[in-house]
User: Fold these one by one.
Assistant:
Number 1:
Amino acid sequence: MTGPKIYTVSELSQGIKSLLETNFRELWVEGEISGLKVSSLGHTYFDLKDATSNISGVMFRGFAQGLKFELANGLLVRVRGNITTYDKQSKYQLMAKAIEPAGIGPLQLAFEQLKKKLAAEGLFDPSRKRPIPALPQKIGVVTSPTGAAIRDILSILKRRYANMHIIIAPVKVQGPGSAEEIANAVIDLNENFPDIDVLLVGRGGGSMEDLWSFNEEIVARAIANSRIPVISCVGHETDFTIADFVADLRAPTPSAAAELVVKSKVELAGHIAQLEKRLLQSLRIYYENLYGRFLRLARSRVLANPLALLERPVRRLDDAVEGLFAASAEKARRAGERLNLQTAKLNALSPLFPLKKGYAVVKDANGKAVKTAASLAPGDRLSLQFAEGRAEAEVVDGGGRPRPQAKRTEKGGQGPRQETLW
């Protein structure tokens, strides 16, 4: 009797792996993403779950790079892939090759996600948008050199303003690498042609997939960082791209962008004529008002008698001069009075002042003032100082010393006689 087949662990694992991979190939599974994790190598690991069950999934880097939108926990998706096992853990998982959002397409989801991200950064704020020059001298165009858009733009610009300076940066506008070309063209024109007044960035109409290059983040950031004002002109009037929201101005079509950026010569001529008319009207009104003011001034009393302008200033000057003289005279009078008063006081203190009243200054032979009679003796010689003039005298009767005897000398009758007078 033959016994049961005995499997090794490896044999059983390989059998299960072969069975799953053979019977569950290229299937679609719908569920909610959870436990999302991206490894350092770029592989994406996640769980796909519904109300009652859960399955592990992995998307390797090569497939993950093809996603148009960002995966996030809670996102309802449809995953296309194979069921396989991981031998070492006997764990089956879904190996994803493609992931699409359930409900809306992947491109629309990617559009909404990038739009929300850039709006949060303020790249759509009206305050950062710059005005488009009214009369640009040099225009840059970033578009395909072979598409209908460039032909329409050049035709309209030539018709509206033939001598416009145009610089074309030829790029791919769809397919792999097109977003990078568009972004690099915007950057190069800013760096190498800083005198460009405005940039037109766009292409003709197409499907969402055809226009997708203008929804790429690299293009949006190149436009946002441009020092040159940018007009976005992508697709038809009903088409909206991320570039439209970031640009300084959105034109519904490339043709409309050309019409917006350059006014026609007829429009310019009409505008100049209107400005000229308004200027002449303003000048006429200004000079009429000026002439009216001139007539009123010509009829005024001041211009009829110009000297009347000087009457009041001259009168005020005369009054000021008279006041100055009067103040000076009064000041001099008061100064004279003070001088006389001080002179009188000084004279009263003078030793000569009593002499005017009849007194005299008595000095002895040595020139010393005699203060008392007791210091005198008969025969002393004195000097008398009066208010006017001087006199000599001799003491006849002293106050404290004896009087000397008078002497008479006679010879042959009356001769000379000396006599003490005091």
Number 2:
Amino acid sequence: MSAPCADDVDAPLPCLDEPGLANRVRGVFADAAYRADNVDALIGRPQANWRREAASRALRAGRDTPLTTLVKLFCGARRVDTGVLDAVLGSAGSAALEAAGLLARDGDEARATVQITPLGEHLYAHDLPARHHARAADFVVGPSPVARLLGALTVPTPVERALDLGCGAGVLALDTLTGARHVTAVDVNPRAVALTRFNAALNGCGNVTTHAGDLFAPLGEARFDLIISNPPFVIAPRATFVYRDGGAPICARIVREAPAHLATNGILQMLCNWPERTGSDWREVPRSWFDGCGCDAWVLRLRSQAALEYALAWLGQEYAGEPVPAAALAEWTDHLAGHDIAAVGTGLVVMRRSSGRPPWLELRDAPPLRGAAGASIARVLVARDAAARLHDDTALLEARLCPAPDLEHHSRRRPDGSGWRAAGAELRLAGGLGFAVKADPVATALLGQLDGKRSVFEALERVAAQGGVAASLLLPQLPAAVRRLLHLGLLVPAEAR
């Protein structure tokens, strides 16, 4: 690996404690239209963590504007002539960036002390790639693909109190938890906590409180309506990075400690890894985490990677496009093989504090993800509550239900030499969790009659009348079919839609 500049590795953290400074710095970026769409267009492809070389190549030529100058500094990690900087941003603008510790001057040149990534409505300051190349243990990552995935899976429920556990640069605290009245962000890495605090001030988010400490330790007995966590779940041979290397044990700890910090009906959502050992069911390890937790728990396996593929994926990030040394790869594969790990599972844990009934536990492969799935996860939880309440068939038939808003019917036909022959049909969700079931004719017809106003039995009577048969003939298999549709969130209580 090429040696990073010492100034990049040891740069002090930015700070916005000076009164009015946050507004001045925010104004510099706003005036330059430093937004995700503009930055992406300028670089030529969507910007992402550590792609400073793409930004650098794209900006070697062209006139200096406020936007190109900020992209050179905060995406490309390039030095900028201070005369150009003052001319383009104005002396007040460049002075504000310097006062905040975002810029350091070296003679006639200025350089950024952090990378700043725009995402959605916010800007996120995080560590420069040089700190990652130098393997600084306290390196703080920005809006990573994993964080964005968790954000897309988080239930979009307005809550009073939310917790970002293992907050990093605060991406989830600021972006995903915008519906919370108050957000608490915790990380064991003091550098991450400082950057989250800076980003909250930079973006004018006054509802964020930060704490440094080990998981729930700094929170006392506080309870939350929503907890999201992107912990250091990577199963690595050594603890190189605080943000990355913790493995399945830290995921198990969070599962076991979370119930004491969940409010009534509170939800925890966490991405995690677990080992999948040769000859064992993949559910074996994650199932062991939930014994006696007193919560409904859902584990959705998003993917399984063979040990070699897993090692290469994380080493590819660590070496940032450079060839992965054979010795490093051997260390990872030997570590995984030594623990009999044939593959590593990646999944989402959803836990909800249950009351008044025994909790349920389900571990399953996730269906296709079709866009943001948080809303469909919330619907499944509500639908399963309804199924538990409607425990007898009479109550179920009297209930008022309706299809999920993105439910679709799909039929398949195949050519057979004389035309197109029906080859089956399915009901499936077009957005979020793409669950699908075989389209039973009676259940399909029933769904078409459920509008949230008719009871299930009233809808059945309409289907029977249209088919010219007695409703009693269609009734025997109906309750089981309706419960299955509720279980997958294809059918929901009328009030949930």
Number 3:
Amino acid sequence: MIRIAFALLACLAAELWFCQALAQGTSAGKAEPIEVVAPTADKAIQKRIQEIFDAVGGFEGIGISVQSGVVTLTGEVSKSSIRRDAVSLADRTDGVVLTLDRMTERVEITSQFAPALEKLREMWRAFVVKLPLIGASFIILLLTGFLTKQVGQHSGWIGRIPLSSLGKQLALRAVRFVIIVIGVLVVLELLDATAIVGAVIGAAGLAGLALGFAFKSIVENYLAGVLLSTRNPFEIGDAVEIDGQVGKVARLTSRDTVLVTLDGNHLRIPNAIVMNSVLLNYSRNPKRRFDFSVGVSTEFDLTEAKKIALDVLASNPGILADPKPVAVIDSLGHSSVAMKFFAWLDQTESDLLKTKSEAIRRVKEAFDQAGIEMPEPIYRVHIRDRSEEAPPRSRPESLPKSITIENIEDISVDTSIDDQIEKELKESGENLLSPELEGNG
């Protein structure tokens, strides 16, 4: 038992010795204490801050006091920016532990307007210095405007360029634009403000992108107008059919195409629709064909009826001999045969509707004189009395050898719509189809 007690005491002593050694080793591994450097003298800090304030300027009226490295700023300042700058300079001074802001801002109107007045004085002095250059720049701008006006008034030289009306206008505007750009660049160079050009170009690019999305339809119609003027699918006074609308072309603007309908109404079609629609121009070819149908009784000789109708059509002064009129049998009905006639006319000399009307009248009168009936497409019910049966209807023994048509009607060109178009052209307004180049571009 004694031995066991001594062994336990020995183990306990060894454990205590090991713990003590471990504690000593840990304390020995710790970092050495930081040596505290004696702070700069408060008067030296105050002197240094005051020297900085005097060198920078604008910190008059600010009081400085330093105690144990703590700087206290007092006094009144005119703007909050001066207050922030004073605190920032004091914080960065060597030896400052903390900066206390005890300053106040003055709310006097004169102190608030003082910087703005000073800025205006500086701008006025700069204006006086650059006054000769400003005068020269103004003269250059006047000369630029005079040159652009002269180019617009004396634009006969551009008429010799083989371009469309719109192409000539665009070329004239391009020349005037170049003159204006050169004048503005010279003025900016004199005023030493060429850096503004880059900013203006960048802003114009962004603005153009935004406006492009905002005015997509306007830009689309303008480009379509340029293409229409370049491709020249119609001219002023042409009879056209666009998207199911029929009329005569009066004006082509940068946004829409103006038609005068056959009723005398003004019809505006956006250029994008004109560009993307099927366009039928009736006036591009002066020769135009018309047709009409006539029903002839099945009891008469069709060959003789065709000959009579063609002779009458050939005698019509509004119908061309080449190509000559044509007659065909179109269909066979229950009580009549439908004959269709085709004839050509010159639209520059004869009106389509009048000539067609005159042709139908002449054929009808010729058939009447020849005894050729034109029955109605109806069914007839005959009730016969067999006791007193009527004799059968006999055909005429012979057709007249000559057909005489009198009372020739007017088939001249109808200019009522053209007169309205001429009146429309006399009014002020843009017209990309105008044969003459506008003087003002």
Number 4:
Amino acid sequence: MAVALYLIRSTAIALISLIELAMFARAILSWFDQTGESKISMFLYAVTEPVILPVRKLCERMHWFEGVPIDIPFMLTWLILMVVQLLLEVF
């Protein structure tokens, strides 16, 4: 049982790390690729947007951060992922 929990925890931590890396790459690429039509941009969007979308929808529904030129739901998602990863590593 302990081995199964360890494997699940390790897999979750690795998956969160990969998503964070993809989000970082997406943020950096957004500085250069303004059209978003490259295959790398489309791949990063497809990988990261399903994770960001619930936070984005919540912010839209609650009318938070309207008119802010920075993608706050993106940063909130990154922060949530970091907290979850930290909690998984501690416990």
